[in-house]
Specification:
mainly beta, 3 helices
Length: 187
């Protein structure tokens, strides 16, 4: 990760090597400072940069790239890998609009109980309170997600693990309780 300038707001980020990809994790002082305001100069992240997490359900990789901890109180952005044969259960966001862009692969998005094919280059818009889910039965799919206002980042941090840590285990009731904290509801 390269800050935009030597005096820029990201000069104190910790870059941890994780195989061929880098993980950018702010230290605790940076999190506290940056969550109080925006990052006026912006920043640039490479494809393998951002806060890397391992999904609790399917082991797919998630990168949180933009959120309140990295300088934006207005939206969240990241990527989510859905391994072949996995998916995202049907759920809705009570106060957030969400959009997806399919970066790699293909699968099925369920929008208000209707299945639709989605493939690389496709865009999916989901207004708040809309039931939706994904499945990737035949191949891996990688999604870019955007959420306004943010909230998905907090859900991922609470439910997912850092690389090298054991995957967290939850009951359905526990996941539903965590989801509600972040304005999300599963069927």
């Amino acid at each position: 990760m390269t800050p935009c300038s030597e005096q820029g707001p990201l000069r104190h980020l910790i870059v941890a090597k994780s195989g061929p990809m880098e993980q950018v994790m702010p230290n605790n002082d940076e999190i506290e400072t940056r969550s109080q305001g925006s990052v006026p100069h912006g920043y640039i992240l490479g494809a393998g940069q951002g806060e890397r997490l391992i999904h609790y359900r399917d082991g797919g990789t998630i990168f949180i790239k933009v959120d309140p901890l990295s300088g934006s109180n207005n939206f969240g952005l990241g990527t989510q890998q859905l391994p072949k044969g996995s998916g995202i259960p049907v759920h809705r966001h009570l106060g957030q609009d969400e959009a997806f862009y399919v970066l790699e692969g293909a699968g099925i998005v369920t929008l208000n109980d209707a299945p639709h094919p989605c493939e690389r280059g496709g865009t999916i818009f989901i207004p708040k309170n809309t039931w939706h889910g994904f499945s990737s039965p035949d191949q891996e799919m990688v999604l870019l997600w955007i959420m306004v206002p943010p909230g998905l980042d907090g859900f991922f941090r609470e439910t997912c693990s850092r690389p090298g840590e054991p995957r967290k285990q939850f009951t359905r009731e526990q996941i539903n309780a965590i989801a509600l904290k972040y304005g999300q509801e599963f069927r």
